TrEMBL record:
Binds 2 magnesium ions per subunit. GO terms for molecular function: hydrolase activity; metal ion binding. The keyword GTP-binding does not apply. The lineage of its organism: Bacteria, Bacillati, Actinomycetota, Actinomycetes, Micrococcales. The keyword Transmembrane does not apply. Keywords: Hydrolase, Magnesium, Metal-binding. This is ADP-ribosylglycohydrolase family protein. It comes from the Bacteria. Belongs to the ADP-ribosylglycohydrolase family. It holds the Pfam family ADP_ribosyl_GH. Mg(2+) binds at T55, D56, D57, D264, D266, T267.
Length: 327
């Protein structure tokens, strides 16, 4: 991909600002909503993550980013199986793994293929009757970096769906991740925030509902605090993050607004950061924040920048078999 300097900065922002939001929200996780005058700062996380250390949100995004930086395609079943295996190994020592994600990964029985992951995710969904936690959306930002070319929208929808369904089977996960990735792609290429325009790419039967959800999140009076206590659900997390981004003039304001929403603060801020960074660029992440950022697997902010630049500019040749999207 031949990207302009501004586009490349925005591609980096989709990764860097997400990691910053993740680490910033870590110490406030599961806490109450915060007042507008409450200072938001980095601290020791709810699960013991260090100051500036990202949590499971970014840790699960890293293997996706690394795959794209290598030039791997997320349409390749072998690549997706390897990513599932990396998640499984990470989960064995992680301070925090989402409950649904943990059950799916341990349901693999050591078989790390795309088919096995999808089967485990589907089995978990059928066992509980639901699988719409926010754990798929929190990690989805890097997926967009592999699909910045002209006409790549359908392939991006397919990739976002397949990555989501490695752990989360429900249609809400597929739709939310597809719309968010498309919005990140659009922002990287244009510098514009346009989420509603991406709804046209998801299955027709579900477009009206998602258009209404997007419109609700974009109301002038909307606030991330509208969803405190239920933003572990992917739809509420999506709306909280969109409200945070739409109501802010820069990356820092978007992340602080997301964290002040309370509840699953690290995840909502990570989701918001991916889109806010794609709109405003990685240059919008303050230098002191960059200096603090670090996390699994021994990566720091400069490493994320390097990986994001490679992922956004590599040619990703599709290979492997196609897996039919669930409808």
């Amino acid at each position: 991909m031949d990207l302009s300097p501004a586009q490349l900065d925005r591609a980096v922002g989709a990764v860097l600002a997400s990691a910053a939001g993740d680490a910033l929200g870590s110490q406030y996780e599961f806490g109450p909503a915060l007042a507008d005058d409450r200072r938001v700062e980095f601290g020791v996380g709810h699960f013991g993550h260090g100051v500036g250390e990202w949590t499971d949100d970014t840790s699960m995004a890293v293997p996706l980013l690394q795959a794209l930086a290598r030039g791997d395609a997320l349409s390749d079943a072998a690549v997706l199986g390897r990513i599932a295996g990396e998640w499984l190994e990470w989960s064995r020592t992680s301070l925090d793994v989402g409950a649904q994600t943990s059950r799916v990964l341990h349901g693999l029985g050591g078989v790390t293929t795309e088919d096995a992951a999808r089967a485990s995710a589907r089995a978990e969904h059928e066992r509980t009757g639901r699988s719409a936690g926010n754990g798929s959306l929190m990690r989805t930002g890097p997926v967009a970096l592999g699909y910045l070319g002209d006409g790549d929208e359908p392939a991006l929808v397919d990739a976002a769906t397949r990555v989501a369904q490695l752990t989360h089977w429900e249609d809400d996960n597929a739709d939310a991740c597809a719309i968010w990735c498309l919005a990140i792609r659009h922002a990287i290429l244009t510098g514009e925030l346009d989420v509603r325009g991406q709804v046209a790419w998801i299955p027709a039967a579900r477009r009206d509902r998602w258009a209404s959800l997007v419109d609700e999140a974009l109301r002038p009076e909307a606030d991330p605090r509208d969803h405190t206590g239920r933003n572990g659900w992917i739809v509420a997390a999506f709306q909280s993050a969109l409200t945070a981004v739409a109501g802010s003039a820069d990356v820092v304001a978007a992340l602080e607004r997301a964290v002040r929403g309370g509840g699953d603060t690290d995840t909502v801020a990570a989701i918001a950061g991916a889109l806010a960074g794609a709109v405003h660029g990685g240059s919008g992440v303050p230098g002191p924040w960059r200096a603090l950022l670090h996390g699994w697997p021994g990566v720091r902010a400069d490493d994320l920048v390097h990986l994001a630049e490679r992922a956004a500019t590599r040619r990703h040749s599709p290979c492997g078999r196609t897996v039919t999207q669930a409808q």
